[in-house]
Design goal:
transmembrane, mainly alpha, Ostalpha/TMEM184C, membrane, transmembrane helix, 66% helix, Protein LAZ1 isoform X2, 387 residues
Length: 387
């Protein structure tokens, strides 16, 4: 029995060239991602935005580590994929919360949408004003859904669109573990008696709806979020989350029908190994893109201009004088960290304090979803002096 297990392990192991290439990209990913992470922790001036931004940044190294482990040991590939899927849903939650934080929080976001709707009603002759009050669905969704009115209801629809994907992703991950234990999951195989095709269909619809809600949210808020260059952030995040998923489904389909006969596929033998190898390369590229799309520089400059407080990124440029009336009219209800007599006069936090705030938060409570990944937990233990 042991000899058989060893033989299976040797046969399923990837070729040396694939392991070396994947390891090189993994090292690149970890180096660049940790550099960007500590850049944000060193310039932790806006916790309301950065704590969620860090969750998005960690998605790339988590993807890379899990894919490399799955590539080296395909026997635990399903377990690694489940962990990757769980963090993916958590990262989507972080990305949505990051965008809302850039708008000033949920209350400010809803007020902005309601104000847009009121302006469209008050000025009906304004060109395209009616389009700003409602969200019209494209074909064929317009036959199934009524136009969404901007305001609290639209915000709740978008929020539910993201949350439902998180819940369904977690449910299908648990279901995959159960089916795999009984040997009927059959990852990458489109057979009637396998669980993989059914979970793939469910995730397809759930993911498509979450993507649609994010696109609609971007359409409404892109002008208000212009200071953070939202298009690049949307494209980068959606490429990692959605394109990697469709890439895996496409590879499974091509292998099932015998259409994927490239040297990489023939060398790696397993459909999941092909996906893992490609993801290792893609995450190396994504880690480079993250340096430019999610930089820490704006937060470093923020501390010089607004010492001792937290401001929403990009409310005012560093070259423009502050207008008290403009500040009052556009004030955003974000949480401020105002200095107290007992506080050190130096603005900002140490890296250890920043990690504590990311994991625990300013309120002193632990949020369970934030422990959905091992990396964050290890950082937390390090910050507390345990490890």
């Amino acid at each position: 029995m042991n000899n058989t297990s060893i033989l299976i392990q040797l046969v399923s192991s990837p070729p040396t060239w694939a392991t070396v290439i994947a390891a090189a990209f993994l090292l690149t990913t970890l180096t660049l991602s940790m550099y960007l992470l500590f850049e944000h922790l060193s310039a932790y001036k806006n916790p309301e935005e950065q704590k969620f931004l860090i969750g998005v940044i960690l998605m790339v190294p988590c993807y890379s580590i899990e894919s490399f482990v799955s590539l080296v040991n395909p026997s635990i590939g399903v377990d690694c994929e489940i962990l990757r899927d769980c963090y993916e849903s958590f990262a989507m939650y972080c990305f949505g919360r990051y965008l809302v934080a850039c708008l000033g929080g949920e209350e400010r976001t809803i007020q902005f949408m309601e104000r847009q709707a009121r302006l469209s009603v008050k000025i009906p002759l304004l060109q395209h004003s009616s389009d700003k009050a409602t969200i019209n669905h494209p074909f064929p969704l317009n036959y199934f859904f009524k136009p969404w009115k901007l305001g609290h209801r639209f915000y709740q629809i978008v929020k539910f669109g993201i949350v439902q994907y998180m819940l369904i992703k977690a449910f299908t991950a648990i279901l995959a573990v159960i089916l795999e234990a009984f040997g009927v999951y059959c990852e990458g195989e489109f057979k009637v008696g396998c669980g993989y095709p059914y979970t793939a269909v469910v995730l397809n619809f759930s993911q498509s709806w979450a993507l649609y809600c994010l696109v609609q949210f971007y359409t409404v808020t892109k002008d208000e979020l212009a200071h953070i260059k939202p298009l690049a952030k949307f494209l980068t995040f959606k490429s990692i989350v959605f394109l990697t998923w469709w890439q895996g489904v496409a590879i499974a389909l091509l292998c099932t029908f015998g259409l994927f006969k490239s040297p990489i596929a023939q060398g790696l033998q397993f459909k999941s190994s092909v996906q893992d190898f490609i993801i290792c390369i893609e995450m190396g590229i994504a880690s480079i893109v993250h340096l430019y799309v999610f930089p820490a520089k704006p937060y470093e400059l923020m501390g010089d201009r607004f010492p001792g407080s937290v401001s929403v990124l990009g409310d005012y440029s560093a070259d423009c004088p502050l207008d008290p009336d403009e500040i009052r009219d556009s004030e955003r209800p974000t949480k401020l960290r105002l200095p107290t007599p007992d506080d050190d006069t130096k603005s900002g936090m140490t890296i250890r304090e920043s990690v504590r705030d990311v994991v625990i938060g300013g309120g002193g409570y632990v949020s369970i979803p934030k422990f959905a990944n091992i990396t964050t937990l290890l950082l937390f233990l390090w910050a507390c002096g345990i490890s």
